[in-house]
Amino acid sequence: MLTLTESARTAVADLAEQAGVAPEGGLRIAESPATEGSLELTLVATPQPDDQVVDDQDAHVFVAATTAPVLTNLTLDTDPAQPGPAFVLAPQR
Fold first, then answer.
1. DSSP character for 5?
2. Selection from 14, 74, 10, 11 nearest residue 39 by Cα
3. Domains in the chain, please, with CATH?
4. Per residue in 5-51, pLDDT tens?
5. Alpha-carbon distance 81 to 25, whole Å?
6. Which residues contact 92 (CB under 8 A, 6 or more apart)?
7. What are the two backbone dihedrals, phi and then psi, of residue 47, each rounded to the nearest 5 degrees?
8. What is the model's pTM?
9. 76 and 3 in contact (C-beta within 8 Å)?
10. List of residues 6+ apart from 87 with CB closer than 8 A
11. Cβ neighbours of residue 21 closer than 8 Å, sequence gap 6 or more
């Protein structure tokens, strides 16, 4: 299952709050229908029925069922070298 670093938890929670997403909402990760092999991140009010839900303190990440196997052994982190919240995926340690 996808895990989150502390900086990713903070970034997800802050983004959702700034966007006015309901407390049960969060960041959804799914394969992009427009670009094969890339991921699409969106803020949503609720997960889709078949989404894998990663609840980590105040951060909620929803992973599309078709995307979950790809992210199973990865960790969501932020890239401090990028301006604003930029997310990266890395192998779990």
1. -
2. 74
3. 3-91 (2.60.300.12)
4. 999 999 999 999 999 999 999 999 999 988 888 999 999 999 999 99
5. 27
6. 3, 73, 74, 75
7. -75, 160
8. 0.91
9. yes
10. 8, 11, 41, 76, 77, 78, 79
11. 43, 44, 45
